[in-house]
Amino acid sequence: MKIFQIETTLNNDTFPAPFEFLQKREWEMSPKDRALLFATKKGLDKMPRRAARKIFQGIRAPFGLTSIQAGEVEAVHKVTTENVYRQHLVRVEGQTDIVTMGLPYLGPYNVNSIMNPILVACLGLGYYFNLYKGKPVVREGGVAIISHPTPWEFHPVHHPSYIDFFEEVLADTTDPEEIEKKYEKRYAEDEWYRHLYRTSYAYHGVHPFYMWYWCAHALEHLGQVIIIGGDPRAVRRMGFRSATTMRDALEMASDVVGSQPSITHIHNPPVLMADVV
Amino acid sequence: MADPNRRPAISHLNRANRLPTVSRAIAKTEFPLRAAPTPIGEEPMASKLGANFDTEWARRYPARLARWATVETLGKGVVGYYARPKISGIDRLHDLDGPAIFAANHQSHADTPVMITSIPEPWRHKLFVGAAADYFFGNRLSSTMSALFIGAIPIERTSINRQTIEKAIALLRGGWSMVIYPEGGRSPDGWSQEFRPGAAFLAKQADVPVVPVNIRGTFDILRKGRMWPKRARAKVTFGKPLTFEDSDNNRKFTRKLQAAVEALADESSSGNWWTARKRAHNDESPDLGGPEAAAWRRRWALTEAGAAKQGSSKRRWPYV
Hints:
The structure holds two protein chains of two kinds.
Chain A (H helix, E strand, L loop, with lengths): L4 E6 L20 H16 L2 H9 L7 E7 L1 H16 E4 L3 E7 L14 H12 L3 E2 L4 E10 L12 H13 L3 H13 L2 H9 L7 H8 L1 H6 L2 E5 L3 H6 L3 E3 L2 H12 L5 E4 L6 E4 L1
Parallel strand pairs in A: 3-10, 4-6, 4-9, 5-10, 6-7, 7-8
Antiparallel strand pairs in A: 1-2
Chain B lengths: L10 H7 L4 H7 L32 H22 L3 E3 L12 E4 L6 H8 L8 E6 H4 L3 H10 L2 E4 L6 H12 L3 E4 L17 H9 L3 E7 L1 H4 L13 E4 L11 H21 L2 H9 L13 H16 L10
Parallel strand pairs in B: 1-7, 2-5, 2-6, 3-4, 3-5
Antiparallel strand pairs in B: 6-7
Helix pairs in contact in B: 3-4, 8-10, 10-11
């Protein structure tokens, strides 16, 4: 069989006007950008979560095409990967004791939906933690400090099995291997989840398992995960710890990495890939 | 007796009891109300202040209208109150057609308001001022105010910035006139400093005449180091426009310009045009740089000259 593959790469232009200030590094913001940031922050703090979600999920990213590759599968993918590396790789010198990151409001599985705690873990520990080449940004046994409100909130139409996964499975254990052995088959073959998957707008019943497995490497590698601003109950359910401020989080992390840790912050947007040397 | 070195035992409690003030509130502000510092190892952003400050907007009609209204009302009122400038030599500009560079000696911050309100129409309202980039364009507020109310453009004093020079040349060619102080800064003691060749360079490049101007009396109004003006009589004397000839070079033209301003100063201080012209013809105009002597002697000489000029013996003691 002859296969013809087309692959494209996009640039990092995530936010159109008037939100383009979100793409800038803080020290590059003009007074206008800072005023907009201040007003946006204050506005979002006062706004109901639903309205805030509607505004931000209504933003259409003005992505531009940076390359198109077509032809034989492996050859095409090689060129695409090179293009992605050229755009996303950021040189990072040495592993760190603590990695800090702020999570965006959007991941691949909550478009026009709610980012529930499992998706928060997946985005932070599955995506951002794993966006490295060579070795992780943080050393083995180090700490990841993530900033996200992590509300105990689920979209009942889109994520029905997530609710049960969170209430039943994670309440029992957070160990991916044990979860797989004990619960995966039951969720995968559950008739109700299958029915919702086929006839409604739900993700498959087994979907939250794979979101959780995605975090497995990070969970194995890290000594502790702290979520700043996270709902303490939801965060604790996943085996993480919640902190109120960055200062508190660093204080808590000192139990694991000592009082003089090195800290690396992954700034996003734009999405980047760490080339740890 | 209380020990002056003794500090309050619980200083943080003491601090908390202090009344909040505007300055303390500003000092406490953090990002995003205050700009974030550039992290170590990162290339700082190119500043949009100083020589890079964009003043294009200040030459659009809304800004020009605001400037016109301010100069004609507030500007004239304040200058009239503090300086009451006596303007002479306007007749020498009758043959001047098109834009020009008004090059004056620089004694104080009062010079620019006095110049802006003294320069006659049609040059007055199509005027920009070459202002020190490091001083007037150091922060956003002063940059905006300078650009809006005096039509300032930033000029580097210590280095040559091609961008600002090209900007000035483009404006001169576009029909705008310029006020420039070739000394490059205010006089520290009331006597003039050596002229720099900036005005000559601009005159050559933009092919516009240079009008020598002498300002007297503004040193007493707002001398360097003083924060608030005091009333004194200023005198502005316009000279005959000088054109950059083929035989000129920057240094030669600058010398000519300085000599012209010195002749105007002589005319202004002596009040005798004929004598001043004769002295200028014989190249004997008094040097604007003042006597080569100790600071107090220079100051004394300046006060003497000022007293003679005003024809009064009211103040015999020098400003020190």
